[in-house]
Specification:
cytoplasm, PdxA, alpha/beta, 335 residues, 13 helices, EC 1.1.1.262, 12-stranded mixed beta sheet, binds 4-hydroxy-L-threonine-5-monophosphate, Isopropylmalate Dehydrogenase, binds nicotinamide-adenine-dinucleotide, NADP
C-alpha cells in the first residue's frame, strides 16, 4: 500500500479547492502520487459541479485512500458549515478550515499519511474561529509540538536552486529590527542548514545572509544591525564549520550569478525574501516549512478570491507543491 499525501482544503472562498480538484483531474498527466483531501465533502462536491468535474468524490479514511484513488477523489470528511460562495468569505467556514489542517497534520504525525500539502488560507477570516497564529507555519509547529513548546519553524520558498527564507515572517515592518537577534538568526540558519541536507539532499549547503539596511549597513553608516547582530551570529556558525556568507546587500544578492552560488538565502523580513522568488517564479515556486518533524508544502500564492470558482487559476504551483512533498517523503511511501 502507498501512503497518501494529506491535502487540506484551505479557504473555501478561494482557489485552493479548485486546484485540488484540478490536480486530481490531471493526476495521470502530471504523474501525481495518491493523495487524500481533508475537506467538507458536500462543499467539495458543490465546487466540483460548479467547475464541471465529473469524477466521483469518495468518503474514505487516510488508510483507504490509496486503494480508492483510481476510482475517485478520496475525501476525509470534515464537519461544519461550508458554503460554496467563490470569492465571498463566510464566517461559517472558519472552524472547518482549521479542523482540516489539524486532521491532516494528525494523520501525518500518526503515520497514515506521508506529508501535508496545504491549500491557501485567508488568515484574517480564521481569527473569529479561534485561530491564534500568524499563518500555517506557526500553527503547524504548534500542532507538531503536541502541547509542548513549539520549536522554531522556518518558512522557505523554493523554485529549483532559488530558495529564500524570511527570518521574520508575518510581523509589522516596524517590529522587524527588534525581532532580529543573534539567537534567532543562528537558530534559523541551523534549521536551514539541517533541512537543506535532510530534505533537499544538498550535501554541503552554502547559505547567504542578507543585511537589513541598504548596502548591508555600509560599514555601520546606515544602521548597526549588521555589525552588532548579523555578522557575529554568522561568525559563530562559520567557526562551527557551516558555510555561511554575509551579511550581503539585499539588492544585489539576487542578481542571478550571485544567488546561483548559494543553496539558500536567509533574508531579514517577509518581502525581502518573497519578492525576488515570486517575481521570477510565481507560477511554480513552493512554500515549504522547515524545522518540523513532518513535511509540509504549499503553493506560493494565496487564496486569489478573484479567481475562485472560475477555473482560471493556474494549478502549476500547487502541482509543484505536491511533487515536492512527494520527493521529500519517498522513503515513507509504503505503509
Ligand atoms: N499558503 C497560504 O495559506 C497563503 C499564501 C499566500 C497568501 N495567503 C493569503 O491569501 C490571501 C490573498 O493574498 P494576496 O492577494 O496577497 O495574494 P494571492 O497570491 O492570493 O493573489 C495575488 C494575485 O495573483 C493572482 N493569483 C494567485 N494565485 C494564482 C494562480 N494560481 N493562478 C493565477 N493567478 C493567481 C491573484 O488573482 C491576484 O491577482 C491573503 O489573506 C494572504 O494571507 C495565504
Ligand atoms: N508568507 C506566505 C506567502 O506570502 O506566500 C504565506 O502567507 C503563507 O504563510 P503560511 O505558510 O505560514 O500560511
Amino acid at each position: 500500500m502507498h501512503k497518501p499525501l494529506a491535502i487540506s482544503m484551505g479557504e473555501p472562498a478561494g482557489i485552493g479547492p479548485d486546484l485540488i480538484l484540478s490536480a486530481y483531474a490531471g493526476r495521470a498527466e502530471w504523474s501525481l502520487p495518491p493523495f487524500c483531501v481533508f475537506a467538507h465533502r458536500g462543499f467539495m462536491q458543490a465546487r466540483a459541479e460548479r467547475l464541471g468535474f465529473g469524477f466521483q468524490l469518495l468518503s474514505t479514511t487516510p488508510d483507504e485512500a490509496d486503494a480508492a484513488f483510481d476510482r475517485g477523489l478520496p475525501v476525509i470528511d470534515i464537519e461544519g458549515m461550508v458554503p460554496d460562495h467563490p470569492g465571498r468569505i463566510s464566517p461559517l467556514s472558519g472552524h472547518a478550515v482549521i479542523a482540516a489542517i489539524e486532521a491532516a497534520v494528525t494523520a501525518t504525525l500518526k503515520g497514515s499519511c506521508r506529508g501535508v500539502v496545504t491549500g491557501p488560507i485567508q488568515k484574517a477570516a480564521l481569527y473569529n474561529a479561534g485561530f491564534r497564529h500568524p499563518g500555517h507555519t506557526e500553527f503547524l509547529a504548534a500542532l507538531c509540538a503536541r502541547g509542548a513548546a513549539p520549536r522554531r519553524p522556518v518558512m522557505m520558498l523554493a523554485h529549483g536552486g532559488l530558495r529564500t527564507v524570511p527570518l521574520t515572517i508575518h510581523v509589522p515592518l516596524r517590529d522587524v529590527p527588534r525581532l532580529i537577534t543573534a539567537e534567532t538568526l543562528a537558530e534559523t540558519l541551523r534549521v536551514v542548514h539541517h533541512d537543506l541536507r535532510q530534505r533537499f539532499g544538498v550535501a554541503e549547503p552554502r547559505i547567504a545572509v542578507a543585511g537589513l539596511n541598504p548596502h548591508a549597513g555600509e560599514a555601520g553608516s546606515i544602521g548597526l544591525e549588521e555589525l552588532d547582530l548579523i555578522a557575529p551570529a554568522i561568525a559563530q556558525l562559520v567557526h562551527d564549520g557551516l558555510d555561511i556568507v554575509g551579511p550581503l546587500p539585499a539588492d544585489t544578492l539576487f542578481y542571478p550569478p550571485h544567488w546561483r552560488t548559494y543553496d539558500a538565502v536567509v533574508a531579514m523580513y517577509h518581502d525581502q525574501a518573497l519578492i525576488p522568488i515570486k517575481t521570477v517564479a510565481f507560477d511554480e515556486a513552493v512554500n515549504v516549512t522547515l524545522g518540523l518533524p513532518i513535511v509540509r508544502t504549499s503553493p506560493d500564492h494565496g487564496t486569489a478570491l478573484d479567481l475562485a470558482g472560475t477555473g482560471k487559476a493556474s494549478p502549476k504551483s500547487f502541482i509543484a507543491a505536491i511533487r515536492m512533498a512527494d520527493e521529500m517523503t519517498q522513503g515513507q511511501d509504503h505503509a
